[in-house]
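Recall that a protein's primary structure is simply its ordered list of amino acids. Everything else, from secondary elements to tertiary packing, is in principle encoded there. The following example makes that idea concrete.
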Amino acid sequence: MSRSGLGADVASSGELLTALEAGFPPQHISVSGPYKSPETLAQVCSTPGITISIDSITELRELAKSNQAYRAHLRLRPDYASSATVDTGSNSRFGISFSDLPDCSEYLASEAVKVVGFHVFSGSQVLDAMSIIQHLRGAMDLSLRAAEVLRVTPEVFNLGGGFGIPYGPADEELDLEPIGAELSELIKRASPARIVLELGRYLVAQAGWYLTRVVGNQTNEGRQAVVVDGGTHQRSDACRLGLRTTARAPLVLNKTSQPVAATDVLGCLCLPDDVLAEASQLPALEVGDVLAFSNAGAYGLSASPALFLSHAIPAEVGFDGKTMELFRSRTTAQFFLNNQNFSSLSD
């Protein structure tokens, strides 16, 4: 992705380190989120070209008092309606409200913060092209009004994104043609500034699969069910989308076509809500069968409570259609005691 000219939006020192190690040029990296740790800010200061997205007036004030120099976007809270499945619109917790922008002016005179643009994100997992267009227009209008109020000449408009992918059999692919036409017009309005879009889920979700093995048969709410060696502690990519009832049925590897029936896939946790699929149309399953859940490339393991109950963290494997490579080994029990110190308690 870095070699293709794409950028990286990161939200922690770990993600920033990963982006830099992956070869993303600093000028193509943006650090967002309501909190940047001292470690993150130190990385930013030691790597010229990185942009930070300032989420609040308080954050702007604190950075303006520092002895460092930051290239920044102001994140604006949308003042228009959002139709996103995961809504971060006018009622969200992120960004500076338009009415509060005049309070930013005194801090913009600081040499520590150079505001080069605006950042607006109104929600994610949108499959309707017109809704995407309305979000992009709203973000551009808001950014231009903010630039006028603050007398800033923007270099960049980050208009968010929210492009969705079809998780379920009833979902249709997002129609990019009208969105492309709208972007052509927005580029004219933004000129000479650039437009940036955040398309993480759209670019990576369909590249990932989650594999888990059947370890037993069970029943659940009157339906046949299986228990697997994985669970929701390893696959939180649902991200408030209710995928256990709406997503495509997992593939059953090395299983020929057979009659299917409504089947629940139950995780391995001591947790009633640990259900990966509910009433999914699956063939009769046996111990040892492997289920492959699609669209697990976004909000997967990194967004999951993987430490819950101290189950092993699964291996991560890369596959390019020809070869496989182990990216991360499955952990052992010792992993959960690493970096702990019990010496004072044992005396």
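The mean pLDDT is 92. The chain has two domains: 8-205, 208-336.
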